[in-house]
Write a structure and sequence with these properties.
- The chain is mostly helical.
- Among the domains are: about 160 residues, HUPs (Rossmann fold); about 90 residues, Arc Repressor Mutant, subunit A (Orthogonal Bundle), CATH 1.10.10.350.
- It is about 45% helix and about 10% strand.
- It has 19 helices and 11 strands.
- It has a 3-stranded antiparallel β-sheet with strand order 3-4-7. It has a two-stranded parallel ribbon with strand order 1-2.
- Helix 17 crosses helix 19.
- Bound molecules: glutamic acid and zinc ion.
- The site of zinc ion has 5 residues, from loops.
């Protein structure tokens, strides 16, 4: 039987790291088995649903670059893939369970349920939950209430004793005492809407899902689902609950630790490839000790056995490192085209401008090593587009020197540049080195005021290459401006 797995998010928030990891593991498993990866929208919680979360879901995965084979937007043989479009189906199956005596109508109104809850709290009962009041209503009582037009929910009959067993691929055999399962959970609400449990089990069955891979926080639902699969006489898909993703303090990863929403990483200038690579390695060991894997390589190497049982710790610094690696791996043309929107947004260049395109292409070797995030590009590259505000005079002055010396050093630099030009960088560097020796100076001291004059900072991309991109005239103009600045003119 061909593998079919699904990612089944509830569109009640933006996509975050935890969800993407669940989706990615499902995807890698499906593709490594030649199977299908399905998206199903579990939008039964209408109060917390918002259409922008669905849009965010699509945008996120398009940006990440791995996508489902079947889903609401791409269609497929198990359509519709949105639970709110399948409501009639759930009702029918819930009624089937009632007929099979595996579920029952509960006519308790919310007032009674609330009173019950208050009483349980007052009595300090460990178990807060439904008291199974309607489980044993006689057929007559039931018929009477229905005839009266009383509203009802449908509840699942959890066996009163015994245990429920199931196997989890990672965690092995799991045994759950039935008395520890929430007493008779609601499957169908009074408005005819299904709960998560009902819709999830029916859809996994009808969509032919072979493996359910989801976060470990869903384990408590598994015994309940097992009871439902047994009640319907269906096979339960194989379960594989994924270890949690924690922050470095050992708590579940959350906003307190930093960005968790994927669009925040995207805005901050992370590359999708870096994010995917890092997330794939979270709690998953690939033997050969390598770090950098393409999506295709991850697919070909993926095995469920490689997943760790213990929680994974999300390390923001490690992710940063991955991002830097991916930036350096890119070709100049690729990187330049990715940076374009950041440079346009920073007002450094117009959208369509071949001159800027050419300049940026030439500048890529200078900035590639320095970029950790795409969004760093405008601040690193601004000096290549325009003159910036000149820093305070001290910035230009080498140790144990004064403003007049710095201005004189700049004068020397200008003379050398006028004489030898910028065509051949190694040879002009030699000229500067030789001149520094003649002057009894260190090359660093000669170049320091020049670097500030050209780039406006003491730490910058390579200096001679920068001047070459700016051109001789502009470089000399900046030197001249700096000299006047130093002389207080
Ligand atoms: N809708 C659930 C969620 O939001 C799906 C859990 C599952 O995969 O069964 O994560
Ligand atoms: Zn009841």
């Amino acid at each position: 039987m061909s593998v079919r797995v699904r990612y089944a998010p509830s569109p009640t928030g933006n996509q975050h790291i935890g969800g993407v990891r669940t989706a990615l593991i499902n995807y890698l498993f499906a593709k490594s088995q030649g199977g299908q990866f399905i998206l199903r929208l579990e939008d039964t919680d209408r109060a917390r649903y918002a259409p922008e979360y669905v849009q965010n879901l699509y945008d996120t995965f398009k940006w990440l670059g791995f996508y489902w084979d079947e889903g609401p937007d791409v269609g497929g043989p198990s359509a519709p893939y949105v639970q709110s479009e399948r409501f009639d189906l759930y009702k029918k199956y819930a009624e089937d369970l009632v007929r099979m005596d595996k579920a029952y109508y509960c006519f308790c109104d919310s007032e009674r349920i609330e009173k019950l809850r208050q009483a349980q709290i007052a009595e300090k009962k460990d178990e807060i939950g439904y008291d199974r009041h309607c489980r044993n209503l006689s057929a007559e009582e039931r018929a009477r209430k229905l005839a009266e037009g009383k509203g009802y929910v449908i509840r699942l009959k959890i066996p009163l004793d015994g245990v429920t067993r199931f196997r989890d691929h990672l965690l092995g055999e799991i045994e759950w005492k039935n008395e520890d399962i929430s007493p008779d959970p609601i499957l169908l609400k009074s408005d005819g809407f299904p709960t998560y449990h009902l819709a999830n089990v029916i859809d996994d069955h009808l969509m032919g899902i072979t493996h359910v891979m989801r976060a470990q926080e869903w384990i408590p639902s598994a015994p309940l689902h097992k009871i439902m699969y047994d009640a319907f006489g269906w096979d339960m898909p194989e379960l594989c609950h994924l270890p949690m993703v924690l922050g470095q303090d050992g708590h579940k990863l959350s906003k307190r630790h930093g960005a968790t929403a994927v669009n925040e990483f995207r805005k901050a200038g992370y590359l999708p490839e870096a994010l995917i690579n890092y997330i794939a390695l979270l709690g998953c060991s690939y033997e050969d000790g390598r770090d950098i894997y393409s999506l295709d390589e991850l697919v070909s190497l993926f095995k469920l056995e490689k997943l760790n049982k213990s929680p994974a710790v999300f390390d923001y610094q490690k992710l940063e490192w991955f991002n830097g690696q991916y930036i350096r791996q890119m070709s100049d043309a690729q990187l330049a085209s990715l940076l374009r929107s950041y440079l346009v947004d920073a007002g450094l260049r117009p959208q369509n401008d071949p001159r800027s395109d050419n300049m940026e292409l030439a500048a890529m070797p200078l900035v590639k090593e320095r970029l950790k995030f795409l969004c760093d590009a405008p601040s690193i590259m601004a000096y290549l587009y325009k003159r910036l505000e000149m820093p305070a005079i001290e910035t230009y002055i080498p140790k144990k020197a004064d403003a007049a010396t710095a201005a004189a050093l700049l004068g020397e630099c200008a003379t050398l540049l006028e004489q030898y030009g910028l065509e051949d960088i190694p040879s002009i560097e030699d000229r500067f080195r030789a001149r520094a020796v003649e002057m009894g100076k260190k090359l660093g001291d000669l170049l320091m005021p020049l670097r500030v004059a050209i780039t406006y900072t003491k730490v910058s991309p390579p200096l001679f290459e920068s001047m070459k991109i700016l051109g001789l005239d502009e470089s000399l103009g900046r030197i001249d401006a700096a000299i006047r600045h130093l002389k207080g003119a």
